[in-house]
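Backbone-to-sequence.
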């Protein structure tokens, strides 16, 4: 099976609104539903699981029913960190009978502009190599920021070798669970290792393969400005003269 595991367990404090950002309505549709629809409509996705913020499970079920998200099979509780939330979802899939070879596409619930091509390529690359990480090569000059005195310093890595990661991150269920267990043995797995690709790199696995993302998919709804960008991107279409 190809299973989409969506994270929707954050409280969204940086958004500064009265409800969590994943449940906010934008153009009369909840953010989490936009994200779920991308996987619902993809022919290679067999099931959807969501790691949900405590107390919002019934809201999620109601939205899924209202908007016809028939592939939603499981809702798992969130954790105290991104790492733990994803681990809860992965362990939940295992408890529901998920085998080692199941492909799990881990995606931010508040990254609603993921495309069919990105999902398809994640599955294809994971099938071939075992790991798939969505990202874009850097166009900008990257410098290191020092918060203590608000200065910047030079990084001796050419930008052509730097990648801005997005989600999905895609793995076989057995391998990502084993990697998490290895990370925990090494004292990792805290709040700074929410991204699975980061965690896997920290335990010494350096052969993850890139799936090219997009600037649209790079939009993760974090603050109010992101909502305006999302609304604009939803209603824009490619000019017919562009190749």
């Amino acid at each position: 099976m190809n299973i989409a595991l969506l994270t929707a367990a954050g409280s969204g404090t940086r958004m500064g609104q009265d409800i969590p950002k994943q449940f906010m309505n934008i153009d009369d549709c909840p953010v989490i539903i936009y994200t779920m629809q991308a996987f619902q409509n993809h022919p290679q996705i067999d099931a959807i699981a969501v790691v949900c913020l405590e107390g919002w499970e019934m809201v999620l079920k109601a939205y899924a029913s209202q908007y016809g998200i028939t592939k939603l099979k499981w809702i798992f509780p969130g954790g105290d960190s991104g790492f733990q939330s994803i681990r809860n979802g992965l362990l939940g899939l295992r408890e529901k009978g998920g085998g080692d070879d199941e492909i799990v596409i881990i995606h931010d619930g508040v990254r609603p502009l993921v495309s069919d091509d990105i999902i398809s390529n994640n599955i294809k690359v994971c099938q071939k190599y075992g790991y798939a990480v969505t990202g874009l090569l850097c166009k900008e000059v990257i410098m290191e920021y020092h918060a203590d005195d608000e200065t910047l310093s030079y990084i001796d890595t050419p930008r052509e070798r730097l990648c801005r990661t997005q989600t999905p991150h895609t793995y076989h269920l057995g391998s990502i669970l084993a990697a998490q267990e290895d990370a925990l043995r090494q004292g990792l797995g805290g709040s700074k290792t929410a991204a699975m690709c980061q965690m896997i790199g920290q335990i010494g696995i350096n052969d993850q393969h890139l799936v090219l993302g997009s600037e649209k998919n790079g939009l993760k709804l974090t603050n109010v400005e992101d909502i305006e960008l999302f609304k604009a991107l939803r209603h824009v279409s490619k000019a017919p003269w562009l190749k």
